[in-house]
Design goal:
The protein is α/β, with parallel strands linked by helices. It folds into two domains: 181 residues, Rossmann fold; 114 residues, 3-Layer(aba) Sandwich (Rossmann fold). The protein is 44% helix and 17% strand. Bound molecules: 6-O-phosphono-beta-D-fructofuranose.
């Protein structure tokens, strides 16, 4: 029989994502419902190393469901990658009587969770990253809000590009993955979308596309570039050389990580927060809460980290058709 969980710690780590607060709130409320004490671990894994931990109260989570960022703060922790750092974290768990941890974040957060669970601490992960690059789950908290933010920005850019008959090159976050850029490209009707997962012939798929669009009477062009595919500045230079246009570059950057989460992110975060505490209470450890076929499931962290997430074929085929790539 698994030991009864009395005290759970919750942390957010890595790049923040809209909806993390909603997940923290859900963890807290599920703990209260189960008579489990909920501790906030501040500043990600660093907080566990440094004992930056305190008991959460109702007022800590009041009205945070609609707030972007994370009230627990976030950080990347090189020290947690070391055995010494992990040992300090284990000591903090012992000191505060933490029976289980809910770690909200992305790939790096889960590598930390895996290391800690190997030291005998129960850990369950919740995927929170705008990149949507965790292979074991169809969705990660924050993606929808980030996509909508980018779409809103690009719609605004399009207005001014149209007035001045210009070409716009917009760089979208996503680290090594193009999930966000593909989604945003589809939603904004981009002229071309450059992502790492879809090798293109620049001359044929960008330069020729712009020339053809021009001949068809188009006067402005929107090129969406995933940060993992190329630097927007360099793409703009190549377009200038190839077409004579003088593109304007916008790197959306961290603006994509902020803002009030959409309903989808709030609800996903709330479901996952609930599920994570239930999983720990049921004696599970070393799991990531995932969504597959619309259902919440939990997956072994090691297995999840060994998986690779490509962009789904339907989106790739749709994108190729919408942007006129005939390879
Ligand atoms: O993983 C989330 C993310 O926003 C990526 O899209 C981006 O590459 C990275 O984090 C930026 O990290 P930082 O906040 O350290 O600049």
């Amino acid at each position: 029989m698994s030991k009864q969980i009395k005290r759970i710690g919750v942390l957010t780590s890595g790049g923040d994502a809209p909806g993390m607060n909603a997940a923290v709130r859900a963890v807290y409320r599920t703990c209260v419902n189960r008579n489990i004490e909920c501790l906030g671990i501040f500043r990600g894994w660093n907080g566990l190393i440094n004992g930056d931990v305190r008991r959460l109260t109702q007022s800590d989570v009041s009205h945070i469901i609609s707030r972007g960022g994370t009230v627990l703060y976030s950080a990347r922790s090189p020290e947690f990658k070391t055995e010494a750092g992990q040992q300090k974290a284990v000591n903090t768990c012992k000191l505060f009587g933490i029976d289980g941890i809910v770690a909200i974040g992305g790939d790096g957060t889960f590598r930390g969770a895996l290391a800690l669970s190997k030291h005998g601490i129960s850990v369950v992960g919740i995927p929170g990253t705008i990149d949507n690059d965790i292979a074991s789950t169809a969705y990660t908290i924050g993606f929808d809000t980030a996509a909508n933010t980018a779409v809103e920005c690009i719609d605004k850019l399009r207005d001014t590009m149209q007035s001045h008959e210009r070409c716009s090159v917009v760089e979208i976050m996503g680290r090594d993955a193009g999930h966000l850029a593909v989604y945003v490209g589809l939603a904004t009707g981009a002229t071309a979308v450059l992502v790492p997962e879809l090798p293109i012939d620049f001359e044929r798929d960008v330069i020729e596309k712009i020339r053809a669009a021009r001949l068809n009477g188009f006067t402005h062009y929107m090129i969406v570039v995933a940060e993992g595919a190329a630097k927007a500045m360099e793409v703009a230079e190549k377009i200038k050389e190839g077409t004579g246009l003088d593109p304007r570059v916008t790197v959306l950057g961290h603006i994509q990580r902020g803002g009030s989460p959409t309903a989808r992110d709030r609800v996903t975060a709330t479901r996952m927060g609930y599920y994570a505490v239930e999983a720990l209470a049921a004696g599970k450890t070393n799991r990531i809460i995932c969504i597959r076929d619309g259902k919440n499931i939990d997956v072994d962290i090691e297995e999840a980290l060994s998986m690779h997430k490509g962009i789904n074929q339907l989106d790739l085929d749709t994108l190729k058709t919408m942007t006129g790539i005939n390879d």
